[in-house]
């Protein structure tokens, strides 16, 4: 790989440096080590692509090792799902391994630790242990059981193994350094008692190793050369190395732990605990719900393995955690399906169109191109009859000049068919249009080469023949969370941001070529988006999931909300320039109406923080954010909120002082902290309106 003309990421640079320093490339071995306590998610996909990608690049074996050390949370279902996901992504492991394969060896090593006085059995309560462990700024103190004799420790540890003690009565701890600045080195736990059956070892064990003890030793036993993990394990590296120091044999490969940044995805969560909560509380319909960030969910939604691999390559490997916009993932699937997905016609919000000059008994089968991006995709036949469905939004009885779809008196083309002209409508008693009557130009068949077929019209519509249409259940999936970072807001439950419109189930009408579709078949519904056949689909009832729309509606919505913020900031300046209360009230009303419609919580929070400065316009705007938007004082860090209050009360502008006092009146939690500042302001205030509101406090 070193000879390739490409830019290496820092992980590859580490490997290249090790090879340069004498490590044989034949000794390279990597691993992907999931814990089988849930389904894999999009973050795991990046880790899978990293480790297996290194295996491909360096022609080195990669193990799939299950970190199955906690029988309370692990199940065979998760093991099977993980294997299925890794294979689906296109990777093959060298060896299928389990931490439980090494339980006996880990136990034997632990006994050796005790004999060398490097481990002891602690019998404190968890509360007492937490207290004696100290804090990051205060060293810990020794356990009263730290100096038990080797003989007593060996006896207790064996009895723990035999199941003689209840859970929580004893643990085995490594004897390292209770004064270490790294709290993980303060006599970490190696074993705890658990009277739980293991999905592989059954009831053989009553004690189970902790992750930090099992992980590095498993790497060592498997001959792993490089153990890559996410940044939260950086403090664990010192312990990883200490455990290896106690057992390392110079004749074997010593694994090296190195860390890379977690790549979080916007509008979702990737915490297994939170994903499990979504499943258990039925916010979604299982681990493979197409709204979930799990690989199984993304696959069911219609994402391809190729799109996920491309996504992993696109975002790359970094040293700092960051938030990747989900639009990057959506771009990857659009790009992939654009090349491979056949184009078909479907109508999801139908209105009936009657082609009045098309003979009632006639049906005409027309040629339709399957995919203009693929020269080998060929053509299919689609039927045209007198009555068809089009999308309701594709017709307006009275249309503006820039409406390029069907309206009365104007022409549009039916995709793959003829030019039609709107003539009249039929309405029900409520005034809803139930039928649109049109005529068609018999000489205008698409691709026929006639003069009429080459006539330019304002737009092209997709459609389906009513007589031939297949009914199907269409599941319109959207982002599961309304906020870009739902689980990072202090004091906010991430469930508060669950999108109530993340799934809409409707009836759609499809062209007849889709009658024989199979699970996971993928199509572009022309002008609507990419859709895949769901596993719930049957011959009697087809079910399609929307994978992604053709355009990013969230990007448009996000731009609109950013524009509202930017325009409101501009309008604030008018507030100070107008001369009357009536004009100021009008400006405030306009700003308030705009802010009330901004739903992006992160945008609002970030905007508030950016505008806490000595500029009177910025301070007034920040106070308006509290007054009109969905932000509440409880949503804001106390330090940030107090800074806003303090600076606003000292502002030169009476308008700013007036608004901050109004906000303080509603803030029962923080009001008392500013009582002295409010009293001082009352003694010096010149503005009658500010004094009036002060006197109401």
TrEMBL record:
GO BP: any one term = glutaminyl-tRNA aminoacylation
Q: What EC numbers are recorded for this enzyme?
A: 6.1.1.18
What SUPFAM superfamilies does this protein map onto? Nucleotidylyl transferase (SSF52374), Ribosomal protein L25-like (SSF50715)
Tell me the GO molecular function terms. ATP binding; glutamine-tRNA ligase activity
Residues in domain Glutamyl/glutaminyl-tRNA synthetase class Ib anti-codon binding?
341-441
Under the heading Pfam families, the entry gives: tRNA-synt_1c, tRNA-synt_1c_C, tRNA-synt_1c_C2
The record's Gene Ontology cellular component field reads: cytosol
Glutamyl/glutaminyl-tRNA synthetase class Ib catalytic domain residues are 27-338
| Residue ranges of every copy of the tRNA synthetases class I (E and Q) anti-codon binding domain listed in the record | 460-534
Region of interest called Disordered, as start-end residue ranges on this chain: 126-145
For this UniProt record, the keywords arranged alphabetically read as follows: Aminoacyl-tRNA synthetase, ATP-binding, Cytoplasm, Ligase, Nucleotide-binding, Protein biosynthesis
Reactions catalysed? tRNA(Gln) + L-glutamine + ATP = L-glutaminyl-tRNA(Gln) + AMP + diphosphate
**Signal peptide annotation:** none
Which InterPro entries would you find in this protein's record?
Answer: aa-tRNA-synth_I_CS, Gln-tRNA-synth, Gln/Glu-tRNA_Ligase, Glu/Gln-tRNA-synth, Glu/Gln-tRNA-synth_Ib_cat-dom, Glu/Gln-tRNA-synth_Ib_codon-bd, Rbsml_bL25/Gln-tRNA_synth_N, Ribosomal_bL25/Gln-tRNA_synth
Compositionally biased tracts (Polar residues): 134-145
Query: What's this protein's family per the entry?
Result: Belongs to the class-I aminoacyl-tRNA synthetase family.
Q: What is this protein called?
A: Glutamine--tRNA ligase
The species this protein belongs to is: Flavobacterium macacae
């Amino acid at each position: 790989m070193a000879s390739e003309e490409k830019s290496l990421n820092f992980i590859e640079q580490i490997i290249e440096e090790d090879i340069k320093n004498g490590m044989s490339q034949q000794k390279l071995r990597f691993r992907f080590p999931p814990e089988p306590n849930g389904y894999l998610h999009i973050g795991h996909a990046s880790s899978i692509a990293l480790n297996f990608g290194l295996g491909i690049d360096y022609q080195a074996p990669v193990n799939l090792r299950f970190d199955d050390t906690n029988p309370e949370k692990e199940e065979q279902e998760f093991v099977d799902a993980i294997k299925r996901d890794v294979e689906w992504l296109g990777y093959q492991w060298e060896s299928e391994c389990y931490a439980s394969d090494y339980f006996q060896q880990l136990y034997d090593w632990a006994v050796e630790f005790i004999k060398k006085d490097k481990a002891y059995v602690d019998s404190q309560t968890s509360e007492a242990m937490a207290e004696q462990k100290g804090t990051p700024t205060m060293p810990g103190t020794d356990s009263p059981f730290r100096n038990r004799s080797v003989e007593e420790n060996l006896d207790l540890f064996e009895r723990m193994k035999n199941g003689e003690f209840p859970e929580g009565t004893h643990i085995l701890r490594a004897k390292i350094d209770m004064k270490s600045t790294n709290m993980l080195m303060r006599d970490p736990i190696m074993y705890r008692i658990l009277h739980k059956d293991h999905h592989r070892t059954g009831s053989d064990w009553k004690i189970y190793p902790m992750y930090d003890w099992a992980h590095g030793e498993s790497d060592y036993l498997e001959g792993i050369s490089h153990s890559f993990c996410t940044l939260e394990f950086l403090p664990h590296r010192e312990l990883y190395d200490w455990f290896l120091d106690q057992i390392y044999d110079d004749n074997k490969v010593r694994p090296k732990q190195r860390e890379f940044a977690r790549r979080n995805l916007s509008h979702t969560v990737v915490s297994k605990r939170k994903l499990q909560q979504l499943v258990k509380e039925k916010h979604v319909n299982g681990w493979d719900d197409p709204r979930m960030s799990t690989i199984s969910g993304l696959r069911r939604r219609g994402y391809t393995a190729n799109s996920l691999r491309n996504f992993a390559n696109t975002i790359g490997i970094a040293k700092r955690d960051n938030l990747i916009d989900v639009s990057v993932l959506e771009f990857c699937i659009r790009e992939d399906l654009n090349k491979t997905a056949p184009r078909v016609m479907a109508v999801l919000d139908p209105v009936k169109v009657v082609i009045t000059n098309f003979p009632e008994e006639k049906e005409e089968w027309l040629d339709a191109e399957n995919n203009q991006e693929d020269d080998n995709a060929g053509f299919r036949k689609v039927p045209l009859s007198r009555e068809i469905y089009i999308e309701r939004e594709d017709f307006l009885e009275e249309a503006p000049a820039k409406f390029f779809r069907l309206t009365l008196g104007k022409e549009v083309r039916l995709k793959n068919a003829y030019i039609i002209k709107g003539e009249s409508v039929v309405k029900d008693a409520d005034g809803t249009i139930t039928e649109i009557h049109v005529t068609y130009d018999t000489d205008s068949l698409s691709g026929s080469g006639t003069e009429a077929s080459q006539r330019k019209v304002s737009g092209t519509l997709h459609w389906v023949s009513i007589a031939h249409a297949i009914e199907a259940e269409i599941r319109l999936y959207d982002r599961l969370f309304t906020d870009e970072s739902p689980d990072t807001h202090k004091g906010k439950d991430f469930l508060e941001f669950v999108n109530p419109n993340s799934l809409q189930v409707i009836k759609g009408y499809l062209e007849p070529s889709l009658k024989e579709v199979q699970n996971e078949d993928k199509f572009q519904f022309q002008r609507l988006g990419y859709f895949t056949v769901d596993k719930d689909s049957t011959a009697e009832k087809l079910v399609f999931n929307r994978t992604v729309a053709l355009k990013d509606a969230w990007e448009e919505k996000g731009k609109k909300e950013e524009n509202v913020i930017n325009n409101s900031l501009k309008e604030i300046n008018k507030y100070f320039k107008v001369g009357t209360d009536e004009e100021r009230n009008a400006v405030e009303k306009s700003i308030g109406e705009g802010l009330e419609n901004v739903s992006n919580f992160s945008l609002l929070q970030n905007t508030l923080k950016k505008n806490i400065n000595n500029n009177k316009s910025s301070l007034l705007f920040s106070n308006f954010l509290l007054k009109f938007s969905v932000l509440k004082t409880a949503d804001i860090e106390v330090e940030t909120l107090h800074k806003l209050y303090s600076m606003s009360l000292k502002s030169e502008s009476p308008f700013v002082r007036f608004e901050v006092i109004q906000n303080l009146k509603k803030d029962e939690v923080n009001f008392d902290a500013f009582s002295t500042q409010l009293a001082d302001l009352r003694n010096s205030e010149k503005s009658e309106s500010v004094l009036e509101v002060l006197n109401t406090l």
